[in-house]
Amino acid sequence: MMKFSAATTRKMKMLMRLAKRSLIWISLIGLAFFISTIIHQLSGANKLPSTSSITLKQPDRASIHQDTPKKSLDLPVIIKPKISKEDYQAAEDDMKYRKSHVEDTCKRLGKTGGQLSAVTLKHIVVDDKYKYLYCYIPKVASGSWLRLLLPLTYPNISIAQSDIQHREQVRKLSDYSPEERLFRLYNYLKFTFVRNPYERFQSAFANKFTEPKIESIRKSIGPTILRRYRKNPTEESLKTGEWVQFHEFVQYLIDPRTKSFNEHWDRFTSLCDPCNVNYDIIGKYETIVRDGNYMLSRINASATFTYKPYKSAQTTFKVKKAYGKVSPADFRSLGDTFQDDFDIFEYDKTRLTNTL
User: Single GO cellular component annotation (predicted)?
Assistant: First the structure.
């Protein structure tokens, strides 16, 4: 065995210690590099972008209710209601009161628990996109409502025609099976709009019997009215139904021989059956703009209802003039004939309008 001097031995031991330290440092550096690589790979695979790098785009109106791809982010759509907080709360309070009044009155009259008639089923418009049921009553801005609502669901629908409610695209509750009807009656928002019956009769008469372009109703009903209530009608008037007077029209409405009514003056209760359809919203013509925009906010529709404001003075003048030749007896009989409409929707049958 070779022998080394003491000095050489000390140098060799020193070199060995340095070598061990170098190996340890090299190992530590390698380990650190390895760990750093692993961490970098893991963070790269799972790293989420910061909130400042995410841009949320509001969906366009056409895509709000379309099917979204499975991988897309399904964000809630918030549409600002076109109604002030004060009006919204006032409408909310009125709807609760009106609904309660209708329920109580229907119970008192014993009209609950019945089956919906074919007339009612055909007057309830169904929208499966916005999930509402709208029972339209002619001469209560029904045309304006349908022209606003239907294009939201049917963009290509023609809204120029006066009988828009009869467009083939429009679904009615009568188009569904009994089970499908029941589901929608329980789960969809249900609404309708009403007005003072006396005002509605005057409006219907002015539209259907005095406007030159509207002949169908005048020709079908006018001759009957003239034959019954006018002394010595001309042969020409009996053919065309021209020149019917409003007081003669009232006589026709209260006559027991009149077995059925045209929808433009039929009873609210016959058209929409409020005693068996639990309407969530009962709008009134007198507050139609506020009530209309309240309804739109309830279905989250990106639309605003605009309508000529209700002018009580102008309406009073027209109604007073129309009823000027109606006898007191016929006026009382008219109120009695439509008694349920006055009671259920809380109109005073002793007054022509809210101010007269």
Answer: Golgi membrane
The first and second tokens of residue 125, run together, are 């418009």
**Integer angstrom CA distances of residue 95 from 21, 211, 281, 309, 354:** 86, 35, 6, 20, 19
User: What residues pair up with 124 in beta bridges, in sequence order?
Assistant: 135
What pLDDT does residue 134 have?
97
What are the residue ranges in the chain where pLDDT is below 50? 39-81, 162
For residue 191, what are its two tokens? 């609404």
CA pair distance 220, 252, nearest whole angstrom? 13
The DSSP bridge pattern shows strands 171-172 and 132-135 to be: unpaired
pLDDT (tens digit, 9 = 90+) per residue, 142-169? 888 888 888 888 777 766 654 555 556 7
Do the domain assignments include residue 131? yes
Residue 213 is classified by DSSP as T
| Residues 345, 348: Cα–Cα separation, whole Å | 9
Q: pTM for the complete prediction?
A: 0.73
Q: Are strands 124-127 and 281-284 parallel, antiparallel or unpaired?
A: unpaired
**Count of alpha carbons within 13 Å of 245, Cβ hemisphere only?**
14
Supply the range of the domain harboring residue 157: 85-344
Those residues whose C-beta lies under 8 Å from the C-beta of residue 336, and which sit 6 or more positions away, are: 349
- Model pLDDT, residue 170: 85
Is there a contact between 285 and 140 (Cβ–Cβ < 8 Å)? yes
Is residue 354 included in any domain, yes or no? no
Residue 68 falls inside a structural domain: no
For the packed helices 246-254 and 197-209, what is the interaxial angle rounded to 10 degrees? 120
Q: How many CB atoms lie within 10 A of CB 142?
A: 21
pLDDT at position 8 = 59
What is the count of structural domains for the chain? 1
Which residues make beta-bridge pairs with 356?
none
Helices (H), the chain: 6-46, 85-109, 118-123, 142-153, 178-187, 197-209, 216-229, 235-240, 246-254, 268-272, 288-298, 312-322, 328-337, 339-344
The CA distance from 244 to 326, in Å, is 13
Q: In angstroms, rounded to a whole number, what is the distance separating the alpha carbons of residues 213 and 131? A: 36
